[in-house]
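in:
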């Protein structure tokens, strides 16, 4: 009797622990959310079951408990998928605690960083579908992440190492076939990092290691050649120039591409978009499709939105700061920008001033400029100001802004952020930080950061 009571108490403590793990996992990937326990439910399900509550709140059930998630906006498809992935992984690990065979087996599911496993479950849900699959299938994503983490700590000739892998998918791909498994094929795991030439043969930018379903490195591929059959297909979201082929490589077949960039960032591509990045010591759910749709809708012109978004990503990869302001009404330009900074102004301030060069871009549309020119003028101190028809109104412009509109916004980037907040009262603002982040501001608030 005493033993039974003790076991019941132990189970209650364990359930409380897993409730905390779920809450922490959700708040890790959705940092602006709040997860609260609403109470028990009759049936315990290992899957997260959603129940709509209101525009800002979402109710869901998991392992016999009902939760409320508050995000102050509607959750996106990828955010819900992330939440399901966290619940799926934790419920599988919870199930294994009561498996009598667990103690006799080596169970990687209990090792490593839990956040990496959440990412892995998002990308390859079948690995942690249940207790049986978690013991039988290799966790290729977590192994690849570990390879990139270790590689990030290394350098070659005082330069950071870049490397990467393409995990062959399980969906149909008429353009690619998995090569036969070579004799003595090595697992794509942390042991590879001890081989000095490993990083040279797959640099992540041009060449990748091809990893089969068993987690073995079976071939080296040129990412541009791999992506060539999909080069005419439109990506779901505009991409940075450097990683366009990486996105294209994952358009079909369910392939997953992981790259350690020269900036020390880990990027994960799938379904034709960047899905995750490991940046500033933590994982970020990119949710690029939803974020780009918000930006495009605000700008109101597809070609202009795509051109500016791509330019922002390219600047971020080069760690160059910049800002694009698309005004709702071009008449507001004089309220935001000094007359001497406007391209339409014929006055010249003084010899040597930048407005001496305004004639080169007067009556120009951003959609007609080459990407290289657009990115060049965006790097000049100040901002690029445009109208909704893509007309270029100013570049290198120092913006007027009223700090009184900033009081409800956390200013973390100094003058550039306060300028973005002020300018967003007049239109849509895309701000690029020198740290590599792209942020969208509207009506005095940051709507997203990528």
């Amino acid at each position: 009797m005493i033993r039974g009571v003790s076991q019941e108490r132990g189970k209650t403590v364990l359930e409380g622990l897993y409730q905390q793990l779920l809450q922490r996992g959700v708040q890790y990937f959705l940092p602006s959310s709040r997860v609260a326990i609403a109470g028990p439910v009759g049936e315990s399900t290992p899957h997260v079951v959603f129940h709509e509550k209101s525009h800002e709140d979402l109710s869901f059930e998991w392992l016999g408990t009902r939760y409320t998630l508050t995000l102050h906006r509607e959750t996106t498809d990828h955010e819900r998928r992330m939440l399901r992935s966290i619940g799926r992984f934790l419920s599988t690990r919870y199930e294994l605690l009561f498996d009598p065979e667990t103690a006799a087996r080596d169970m990687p599911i209990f090792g490593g960083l839990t956040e990496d496993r959440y990412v892995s479950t998002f990308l390859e849900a079948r690995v942690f579908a249940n207790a049986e699959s978690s013991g039988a299938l290799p966790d290729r994503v977590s192994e690849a992440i570990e390879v990139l983490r270790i590689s990030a700590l290394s350098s070659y000739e005082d330069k950071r190492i870049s490397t990467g892998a393409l995990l062959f998918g399980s969906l149909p791909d008429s353009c690619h076939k998995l090569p036969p498994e070579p004799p003595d094929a090595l697992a794509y795991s942390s042991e590879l990092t001890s081989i000095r030439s490993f990083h040279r043969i797959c640099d992540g930018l041009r060449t990748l290691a091809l990893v089969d379903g068993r987690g073995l490195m079976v071939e080296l591929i040129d990412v541009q050649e791999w992506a060539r059959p999909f080069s005419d297909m439109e990506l779901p979201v505009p991409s940075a120039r450097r990683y366009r082929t990486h996105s294209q490589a994952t358009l079909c077949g369910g392939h997953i591409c992981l790259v350690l960039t020269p900036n020390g960032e880990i990027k994960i591509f799938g379904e034709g978009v960047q899905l995750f990045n490991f940046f500033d010591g933590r994982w970020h759910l990119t949710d690029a499709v939803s974020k780009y749709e918000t930006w495009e809708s605000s700008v109101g012109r597809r070609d202009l939105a795509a051109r500016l978004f791509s330019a922002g990503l390219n600047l971020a990869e080069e760690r160059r700061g910049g800002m694009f302001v698309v005004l709702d009404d071009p008449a507001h330009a004089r309220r935001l920008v000094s007359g001497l900074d406007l391209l339409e102004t014929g006055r010249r301030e003084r010899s040597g001033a930048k407005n001496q060069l305004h004639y080169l871009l007067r009556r120009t549309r951003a959609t007609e400029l080459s990407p290289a020119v657009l990115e060049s003028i965006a790097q000049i101190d100040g901002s690029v100001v445009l109208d909704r028809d893509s007309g270029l109104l100013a570049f290198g412009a120092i913006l007027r802004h009223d700090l009184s509109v900033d009081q409800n916004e956390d200013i973390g980037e100094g003058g550039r952020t306060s300028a973005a907040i002020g300018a967003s009262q007049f239109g849509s603002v895309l701000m690029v930080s020198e740290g590599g982040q792209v942020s969208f501001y509207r009506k005095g608030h940051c709507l997203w950061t990528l």
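note: The radius of gyration is 25 Å.
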